[in-house]
Amino acid sequence: MSQESNPNNKTKVCPTCGTRLSENAMRCLVCGTEFNAKPEPKAAKKVEKSVQASRMPVVTLSLPAAVGVIAVVIIVAAAIVFFSLRASAPPGTFETAETATPSATPTETLPATATLIPTQIPTSTNIPPFDYTVSAGDGTCSQIAFNFNISVQSIIIANNLASTCPISVGQVLKIPYPTPTIPAAATNTPEPAKATQDACETVPITVQDGDTLSTIALNYAVPPEAIKEYNGLPTDNVFIGSSLLIPLCKRAATPGPTPTATIPPPYPAPNLLLPADGAAFTLANDVVTLQWASVGVLRDGEAYQITVEDVTSDQTRRLTDYVTDTKYIVPSTFRPKDNVAHVLRWWVTPVRQAGTDDQGQPIWVASGAVSDKHVFTWVGVAVEGTPNP
Question: Are residues 276 and 358 in the same domain?
């Protein structure tokens, strides 16, 4: 008969083998487990939990996401490098020129251009050689060629002579006319004020410490107003280190019984314009007009000296005259009197009056370079007809 347990009796279960024992049992009768051992304090467990290290969060990415992240990092790094190079590069390195798109431009109908009448320029006329009789004073072909401003070869060809060009007194030669040359273009004549300023001799100076406009003017004997006007100074103040031009042409005359004025610089050679070198004039030309370019504004006592000489006649005739204009009309009295085409040579020289002679005539001296020498031919009278045999 089994023993029934009293429900009023309190029991406890062995935690090891599960045997039910009385409440006051200190030891399990089956497995020998003692019930007096106390459980480990909770504080120790808390300490053990606090000592345990925390784990980092683990991020898991798929392969496409990882590739996208790497691409973004590369793009950001490339952008940083590009903008750094752009900031340090010289200006204009990364600028691109914009190409303009051509647009259709409406065609504008231009009005009819007026036809200008060309300037009439005298042209040379090809005329046959003229006859010339060798005189005792001619000497050789070279002298004749020099007198007529032609080459020795042209005389040899025109007369079918040997290469040594043998000639004799009384021999009749065919003399060709000089080859005409194209006249040079006329030079621009400067304005009177500019010509005067260019002709004025100047001395460049640098203003030093202690210089004033009055002391500078006194040192160079030039009025202060002239220095101000020539250098464009608004006031009488001059500054140290500034450059000035002292116009010596404004210098006052040297005091004394015979003051001497500053001699202006020489003029350039006049440029001969008309007639063209080698031009021919016939019976229809009663007068011949010579023209040349101006060398500047002439001062009082200055002029152009014109020299015309006939190199064809046995005894060279020469005409010298003085004008202040840039043209001269050869008088009809200098026209040849025979039926031979005469070669006339002319040139122009700027001159200045240096005084007067015993008869009160001006004495002229050269004030510039002599121009080139040009020639022209002029027929005096009609050629007589050859009588029939």
Answer: yes
Please indicate, yes or no, whether the overall pTM of this predicted structure exceeds 0.70. Answer: no
What is the domain range of residue 22? 9-38
Query: Is there a contact between 353 and 361 (Cβ–Cβ < 8 Å)?
Result: no
Cβ pair 181, 278 in contact under 8 A: yes
Q: Is 130 within 8 Å of 340 (Cβ atoms)? A: yes
Does one domain contain both 308 and 361?
A: yes
* Amino acid residing at 280: A
Q: Indicate if 231 and 284 belong to the same structural domain.
A: no
Q: What total of structural domains would you count in the chain? A: 4
Q: Read off the CATH number of the domain in which 285 is found.
A: 2.60.40.10
Q: How is residue 5 written in tokens?
A: 């347990």
Extended beta strands in 123-229, E state: 130-133, 172-175, 202-206
Q: How far is residue 364's CA from residue 340's CA, in Å, rounded to a whole number?
A: 35
Chain segment 58-116, per-residue pLDDT in tens: 666 678 888 888 999 999 999 998 888 877 767 666 565 555 555 555 555 555 655 65
Helix (H) or strand (E) run with residue 165 in it:
none
Q: Compute the residue count for the chain.
A: 389
**What average pLDDT does this structure show over 147-175?**
85
Residue 212 vs residues 163, 235, 367: alpha-carbon distances, Å: 76, 12, 37
Q: Do the domain assignments include residue 83?
A: no
What are 119-123's contacts with CB under 8 Å, separation 24+?
121/276, 122/274, 122/275, 122/276, 122/279, 123/276, 123/279
pLDDT tens sequence across 171-210: 888 888 877 665 555 566 556 666 666 778 888 888 888 8
- Specify the CATH number for the domain of residue 211: 3.10.350.10
Token digits of residue 66: 């990882």
Whether residue 281 is found in the same domain as residue 319: yes
346 within domain boundaries:
yes
Same domain? For 313 and 373 the reply is: yes
